[in-house]
User: Fold this.
Amino acid sequence: ATVNRRENAENVGKELPERSETFLAFSQAAVRSLQGRGRITAALL
Assistant:
């Protein structure tokens, strides 16, 4: 039997540092949407 080994594939998820920030932004937008808030909120100081 022969064993054909593939080259190691790129793990793009670990190599892209902005991936976590992107999903954090998506999750924050989803939470705001569920709360009925828009993308921009203002508060009186």
Remarks:
- The chain has two helices and no strands.
- The chain has a mean pLDDT of 77.
- Helices lie at 12-15, 18-35.
- The two ends are 74 Å apart (CA to CA).
